[in-house]
Write a structure and sequence with these properties.
The chain is mostly helical and 261 residues long. The chain has 16 helices and no strands.
C-alpha cells in the first residue's frame, strides 16, 4: 500500500463512512484500525486529511481529572489512577486548560485555600498553614482568581522608617542591632545608611577572648607557669596567650632548653 498522495489514500478508504461513525461514537483510532483490519498509521492519515477527531484519551475521564486536580493530586497520582503515562496527563492538562500541580506542592488544597482567603487570612498565614512559600500561594491565587489580603511582594523588604533609623543610630546602635529591630537584613540597613549618609556605631572588637581572665593570667604567670600551660588552662592557643602577654606586659617563664620540664 502506497501513501503517495491524498487520492491514493482515499481510494483505499472504502470504509470512510465507517471511520466517521466509529469516531463519532467515541472509539479510539487504535480500536478503529483493529476493527477495520488496517494499520493505525493509515487511520491516522485519513483522520488528519478528513479532519476526523477521534477519542484519543478515552481512558481518562476529563471531569474526574479536573476533580482530582482540584483536590491537589499530582500528575503522577492521576496517571497511576487512569493507567496512563504522566506525559499523557500533562498533555490533557494543556489541552483542557487545567492548572498544573507540582508533586511536592500538592499539599495545597484549593477548597481550603479559598475558605482561608474568604476568612481574611493573610498570605503569610496561609503559606505557613500549608508549609509552602508565600510565592507559591500567590501563584495559585493568581491562577485560580482568588482574592487574598495583604499579599507579600517577592524581593521587596519591609519598609524602614528613616527617621527612626537616624534616632537609633544617634543612640549608638550598630547596623546589626538596627537590622534586628526592623526585621531586615544587615545589608539592607547598610545600603540605606550609605544612601542617606547615616553613620552608625561600629561593633566593638573583642581583642581578648572572654574565656581569658587577665587577672588570673597574671597570677599564673607570677606562679611561674609557661605560656603553653596557661594556654591549656584557658583552652586557647599558645599564640593567643603570647599576644595577650605582649600587649599587657606580662612576663612568663620561658620553656627549658632541650625539652626538660
Amino acid at each position: 500500500m502506497t501513501f503517495g498522495n491524498k487520492n491514493s489514500i482515499l481510494t483505499r478508504a472504502e470504509n470512510l463512512d465507517r471511520i466517521r461513525q466509529l469516531s463519532a461514537e467515541g472509539v479510539s483510532r487504535t480500536k478503529i484500525a483493529r476493527q477495520l483490519g488496517v494499520a493505525l498509521s493509515y487511520i491516522s492519515i485519513v483522520c488528519r486529511w478528513e479532519g476526523i477527531v477521534t477519542a484519543r484519551h478515552s481512558k481518562v475521564d476529563i471531569d474526574q481529572l479536573r476533580h482530582m486536580a482540584a483536590e491537589g493530586k499530582t500528575q503522577d497520582d492521576i496517571a497511576r489512577k487512569f493507567g496512563v503515562s504522566p506525559q499523557r496527563v500533562s498533555q490533557l492538562y494543556r489541552l483542557e486548560g487545567i492548572a498544573t500541580i507540582v508533586g511536592r506542592r500538592s499539599k495545597v488544597n484549593r477548597a481550603q485555600l479559598r475558605q482561608m482567603a474568604a476568612e481574611g487570612k493573610s498570605c503569610t498565614e496561609i503559606a505557613n498553614c500549608f508549609a509552602v512559600s508565600q510565592l507559591h500561594i500567590l501563584r495559585i491565587c493568581k491562577r485560580e482568581g482568588i482574592a487574598i489580603s495583604n499579599p507579600v511582594k517577592r524581593g521587596v523588604p519591609p519598609k524602614v522608617n528613616i527617621a527612626q533609623l537616624r534616632q537609633m543610630a544617634a543612640e549608638g546602635k550598630t547596623k546589626a542591632d538596627i537590622a534586628h529591630q526592623f526585621g531586615v537584613a544587615k545589608s539592607h540597613i547598610y545600603r540605606i545608611c550609605k544612601r542617606e549618609g547615616i553613620t552608625t556605631r561600629k561593633p566593638a572588637r573583642r581583642s581578648i577572648p572572654s574565656k581569658v581572665n587577665i587577672a588570673q593570667l597574671r597570677k599564673m604567670a607570677a606562679e611561674g607557669m609557661r605560656q603553653a600551660d596557661i594556654a591549656q588552662q584557658f583552652g586557647v592557643s599558645k599564640q593567643r596567650i603570647s599576644e595577650i602577654c605582649k600587649r599587657e606586659g606580662i612576663t612568663t617563664r620561658k620553656p627549658a632548653k632541650g625539652g626538660a620540664k
